[in-house]
Amino acid sequence: MHALRFLLDIVLPAACSYCRSSLSGSAVPFFCPQCWSELAPLQGPVCPDCGKPFSSAASLVLSPGHRCRSCRELPPHFDQALAAGYFEGPLREAVHVFKYRPLRALGVPLGAWMAAQVRLVHPLDRVMPVPLHRTRLRTRGFNQALLLAAAVGRRFSLELDYDNLVRIRATRPQVELNGPERTQNVRGAFELRRPDAVAGMRLLLVDDVFTTGATLNECSRVLKEAGAASVIAFTLARAPE
Fold first, then answer.
1. Considering the entire predicted model, what is its pTM?
2. Class of domain 40-238
3. Nearest residue to 165 (alpha-carbon basis) of 132, 202, 120, 187
4. DSSP class of residue 66?
5. Which residue ranges does the chain devote to CATH 3.40.50?
6. CB of 174 within 8 A of CB of 214?
7. What local confidence, expressed as pLDDT, does residue 2 receive?
8. Checking CA distances to 143, which of 64, 118, 127, 210 falls within 20 to 30 Å?
């Protein structure tokens, strides 16, 4: 009986993954309506290049060009980074359930919430997901960035380019590494199957979480070197560095 209850909780959970309250009436798998309503949008002043949150509006006055120190010293390859929410509370739990349980069904509601938090002001041609290496894709069963990119593409009527940018080298999980190690870890890990297809394109590059931005920056470098006109990095969540 205990084994049966365990299996039922995996397939049809009775309690919210975050607060453990009843899931009765919830339209989102594993999350109650209250917790889902408390996903925290990213608000307040941010660096216009990398999207790093500033501690207060006064920081904008003290920051030349309103850019953070990191972007002034070493400008990123992407033109701008946007994040829908803070990597905390119910959103952090949702990302973990989505990626590591893993729960493909969260892709649509998370992607819809993500797209609803921003207003894209730059013209764009295509949306691309950050790819997984085939070994990790085989283990997880899906690419979470692709599911998010598909939802974002539907919202903004963008063509989805999902198989051009590929990860050619298996890398250590970025969560195990510090900032400099993350940059080195993904260096040379990506390539384009059809480089000519991105020449002159204005691209929206989608991933789940922005921490140091190393993965998005390396992907953007590859895209820019192939002639992409612009790359906007867009993530579901922004984590503290």
1. 0.89
2. alpha beta
3. 132
4. G
5. 40-238
6. yes
7. 42
8. 118
